[in-house]
Amino acid sequence: MGAVSAAVEVTDLVYTYPGADEPVLRGVSLAVPAGTLCAVVGPNGAGKTTLCHAIRGFVPHFYKGELSGTVRVGGQDVAAADEDELARGIGYVFQNPFTQMSGITDTVFDELAFGLGNLGVPPTETRERVEEALVRAGLADLRDRHPFQLSGGQQQRVALAAVLIMEQPVLVIDEPTSQLDPRSTEDVFALVAAMKEAGRTVVLVEHKMSLVAEHADQVVVLDGGEVVLAGTPQEVFTDPRTAAHGTLLPEAVRLAGALRERGIDVPGAPLTVGALAAALGARDDGGADVGPAGAAGEA
Ligand SMILES: Nc1ncnc2c1ncn2[C@@H]1O[C@H](COP(=O)(O)OP(=O)(O)OP(=O)(O)O)[C@@H](O)[C@H]1O
Ligand SMILES: [Mg+2]
């Protein structure tokens, strides 16, 4: 290890669910430095959620099975930590937000207050923190609604507000935008980015690569339970192997590729629509020339 300690460090993790023949994680290693965002991407069944469970300690504390290798969060071996330490240290947003709801509160407000009450936060401070989280998560209008009577997307926002409010230093967020409309998706990413800016370390599973490209410090591509590629968004999304592992590249990368196929020069390696527009605008000719018509044929 170098001088900077990783907030999350997974080493040679091999895990087999109880009764299964084959491991679903096959020697996974990754390191997430404190205060950075690591996106875990890859096809359905790759093992992303299982990896999240292992980082939070649900594997091996809740899911038994066969485990080797280690997960350290804040230097602590997760397998040796107790549930109380894990809950205080690591916020978790489930892929299915329904799983997250406590089932014992009648309003969104009380649902968010519930976790703080468990931590012994005094009522006045609890109210203030809940009010702030409701506004930041776009839930102010839903404060008196029953958690079970929310749409999937609304439940996802409650689940995210719940980790916003608990202020654990490490967050594991499994597909927080799967049921959100595009506008809410942007809002949720802004919220996750703000939590990172506040110094929290984030492991995020996400399929929307444009948002991953914009917000991740590191991208880990998981396929068949193995890390097949890892690096900065720039490294991963310009590597031809990424698409081969079932990952749809960010729109800007695909568009830049399509333009180049037609003989249109796109300088650099833009990952976002904004960067692509800037790259085209900054060409020597000022971007006025769209290249020879049909230069690359009509493939
Ligand atoms: N509780 C379980 N018991 C046995 N096998 C499981 C269990 N949960 C998941 N698996 C298996 O482990 C593998 C990885 O599943 P996992 O949920 O981690 O994938 P994922 O990458 O999160 O997929 P998705 O993109 O669909 O959410 C799959 O083959 C799945 O069938
Ligand atoms: Mg999953």
TrEMBL record:
UniProt xrefs under InterPro entries: AAA+_ATPase, ABC_transporter-like_ATP-bd, ABC_transporter-like_CS, ABC_transpr_CbiO/EcfA_su, ECF_ABC_transporter_ATP-bd, P-loop_NTPase
Gene Ontology MF: a single term: ATP binding
Keywords annotated in UniProt: ATP-binding, Nucleotide-binding, Transport
Residue ranges of every copy of the ABC transporter domain listed in the record: 8-249
SMART domains xref list: AAA (SM00382)
Keyword Isomerase: no
SUPFAM superfamilies with a match to the protein in the record: P-loop containing nucleoside triphosphate hydrolases
Family of the protein in this entry: Belongs to the ABC transporter superfamily.
Name of this protein: ATP-binding cassette domain-containing protein
